[in-house]
């Protein structure tokens, strides 16, 4: 059994990890931390876990966590980097669901996250945890940087076209909508129901923290720098990411449908829908699946890719468990066979 610890077990991502790991046949959740709930039972805070998780919250102590085989950090940015070196020294593997190790340039990370990086020497070692692009590196990694939710949906949509050089990499557009759980579990005016209900708005147009992460990874695929306009939106739903992606085709591309189907034929969590489909976030809610469809409106040179995920699962906790399965040599779908919730 894999002895797993979760640092930051009281947020939406933390409880989603607990929900998934509670039914994982190869995992024992041995440590769950929360500074504010030390000594309280996890299922007292989350009664949905009654009978599934029999653990008490503890303080985020390196000595306690060192008994784990793997530690998930479901924490705000700036936390994992303070403990990573010590845990790695104990032989503990780490999957960080924050942004601490996603960017390869420490100065750029400081610019976007407003703090100096505490362990820049680990940035080069960290493996970016998108299994569809870094599967082999993840298998041997000690430290995995779990991708952001927006970057996951955007990358999976653009990936097949950039790999083949079929679109202009300098003029990409990602118009992406997210449910309010993407903002985390905190009391904040902007995410109150009375503020988000019956409303729909863009934000971060001048620059969102996920922009450099998306550009970095798309550039690796394209083997050159990319130009990306990324506009996130907040919509009045709890879960879900819907990415509408635009690019200009650069020549005769043949069947786009066939290209995407062949690219993702062996990917257990990426489902290319039939031609002319329109993915719906409700059809991936609670699952680790990404649904994709491809359109070429009026047969012109603009391609439109639609990519939808559950931001808390494929965009966070589910992808982290997928990475864990790879790191420990387990079948990739282990513990992640959940069918989406409907309605």
Explain this structure.
29% of the residues lie in helices and 20% in strands. The chain is built from eleven helices and 14 strands. The protein has helices at 12-21, 42-45, 62-65, 80-89, 106-113, 131-139, 149-163, 193-196, 210-222, 256-263, 313-327, and strands at 2-7, 27-33, 57-58, 70-73, 93-96, 127-128, 143-145, 172-178, 201-202, 228-234, 241-248, 270-272, 290-295, 302-309. The strands form two sheets. The chain has a seven-stranded parallel sheet with strand order 3-2-1-4-5-7-6, with helices on both faces. Helix 2 (42-45) links the parallel strand 2 (27-33) and strand 3. The chain is globular and about 60 Å long. It starts with a strand and ends in a 16-residue tail after the last helix. The relative contact order is 0.14. The mean pLDDT is 95.
In short:
The chain has 343 residues and is α/β, with parallel strands linked by helices. It has two domains: 2-125, NAD(P)-binding Rossmann-like Domain (Rossmann fold), CATH 3.40.50.720; 150-310, Dihydrodipicolinate Reductase, domain 2 (2-Layer Sandwich), CATH 3.30.360. The protein has eleven helices and 14 strands.
Output the keywords:
343 residues; alpha/beta; Rossmann fold; Dihydrodipicolinate Reductase, domain 2; 2 domains; seven-stranded parallel beta sheet; seven-stranded mixed beta sheet; 11 helices; 14 strands; 20% strand; globular
């Amino acid at each position: 059994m894999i002895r797993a610890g979760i640092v930051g077990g009281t947020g939406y991502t933390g409880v989603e990890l607990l929900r998934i790991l509670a039914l994982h046949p190869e995992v024992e959740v041995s440590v769950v931390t929360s500074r504010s709930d030390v000594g309280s039972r996890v299922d007292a805070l989350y009664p949905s876990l009654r009978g599934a998780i029999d653990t008490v919250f503890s303080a985020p102590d390196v000595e306690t966590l060192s008994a784990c085989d793997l530690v998930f950090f479901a924490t705000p940015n700036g936390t994992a980097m303070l403990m990573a070196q010590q845990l790695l020294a104990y032989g503990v593997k780490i999957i960080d669901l924050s942004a601490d190790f996603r960017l390869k340039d420490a100065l750029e990370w400081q610019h976007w996250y407003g703090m100096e990086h505490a362990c820049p020497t680990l940035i080069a070692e960290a493996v970016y945890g998108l299994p569809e692009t870094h599967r082999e590196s993840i298998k041997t990694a000690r430290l995995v940087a779990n991708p952001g939710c927006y970057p996951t949906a955007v990358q999976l949509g653009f990936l097949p076209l950039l790999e083949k050089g079929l679109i202009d990499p300098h003029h990409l557009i990602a118009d992406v909508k997210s449910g309010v759980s993407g903002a985390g579990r905190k009391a904040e005016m902007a995410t109150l129901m009375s503020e988000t209900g019956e409303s729909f708005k863009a934000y971060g147009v001048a620059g969102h923290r996920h922009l450099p992460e998306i550009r970095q990874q798309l550039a690796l695929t394209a083997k050159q720098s990319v130009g990306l306009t990324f506009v996130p939106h907040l919509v009045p739903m709890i879960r879900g990411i819907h990415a509408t992606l635009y690019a200009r085709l650069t020549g005769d591309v043949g069947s786009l449908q066939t290209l995407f189907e062949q690219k993702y034929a062996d990917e257990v969590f990426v489902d290319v829908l039939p031609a002319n489909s329109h993915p719906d976030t409700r059809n991936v809610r609670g699952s680790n699946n990404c649904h994709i469809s491809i359109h070429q409106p009026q047969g012109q040179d603009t391609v439109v890719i639609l990519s939808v995920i559950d931001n808390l699962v494929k965009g966070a906790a589910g992808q982290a468990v997928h990475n864990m399965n790879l790191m420990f040599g387990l079948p990739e779908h282990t513990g992640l066979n959940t069918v989406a919730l409907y309605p």
